[in-house]
Automatic annotation (TrEMBL):
Ranges where the CusB-like beta-barrel domain occurs: 243-328
Organism for this UniProt entry: Thiomonas bhubaneswarensis
RNA-binding recorded as keyword: no
Family: Belongs to the UPF0194 family.
Protein's recorded name: Multidrug resistance efflux pump
Keywords, alphabetical: Coiled coil, Periplasm, Signal
Location of this chain's protein in the cell: Periplasm
Domain (YbhG-like alpha-helical hairpin) ranges: 79-207
Domain of life according to the entry: Bacteria
Pfam family, one: HH_YBHG
Residues making up the signal peptide according to the UniProt record: 1-22
Keyword match Signal: yes
Amino acid sequence: MKNKKRPLIVLFLLLVLGLAGAAYWWSHRAPPTTHELTLYGNIDIRQVQLAFNDAGRVVELAVQEGDAVRKGQVVARIDAVRYQDTVDRAQAALLAQQSELAKLRAGSRPQEIAQARAAVSAALAAQANAEATYARQKTLVDSGFLPKQSLDNITQQRKTAAADVQRAQQALSLALQGPRKEDIEAAQALVQADKSALALAQRQLADTVLRAPDDGVVENRILEVGDMAAPQTPVITIALNNPVWVRAYVPETELGKLAPGMHASIESDSFPGQSFEGWIGSISPTAEFTPKSVETTELRAQLVYRVRVYACNPTQKLRLGMPVTVRVPLLNNPPQATSEHVCQH
């Protein structure tokens, strides 16, 4: 009986040793070499809340929720009457100031110079007449035929005539020289100020039209026709189409394999067999606990780093919140500048 049990014991010991050896080998084996890093995450998008730069009453909303919009497309307008009036007034002020500057640059007209010369001639004639009258009066006063008071009167007239000549000559000199340089420069500055005022008024008029900043889909009409818009009040919310991005998480042990600018492909269960081009956009500098939305048992209790993976979405198949798988090749995948990643529309 003892002889029959001995082979069974030996067989059992060999089995235990084999299992122990297999366990030791499994625990100390080198990890398999992979050439691809797989991440899991959800699609996120950029949203833009459009608002007017100035206050006004909404007179048109050209889109509805769900409408696709193109970059530059008109989506809303506010009442532009007041802003058009401001433009008209600024244009009139600019034209008036430009005319004033042109007049200063042109200098005195020939008629004005001729008028100044005539005034000088008239003043000289009056002075000559006053001198002759003074000479006659003085002779008569010296002879005793006229009182001295008469000579005093004509003396005053003589001085007045001389002053009139000086004034007329100075007026002729100003007419010949034209406006001062400082007056022209001041007029030029006023023209520039009026141009700036006109440009501001035209900008405010253009801002009465609200345009889409990029391609996207209208998510929400916050205001309606008749509401008062203000710079702090959003009017429409637009979800931008391209690029969307994936919010994924990478464990600390895999962090060194990633770098911003690396190429990636994105897959979704909604489109089996199809992948979307993408690239690593940014990696968070701080670690965090894996969010509950990442349903990977191995990662759930570990610290991870958030990764943003941009995705080209020209056909708008990737939607907000969609779970996706990101595959990042680790061979022949050097980081590239962000500008080199261009989504094909």
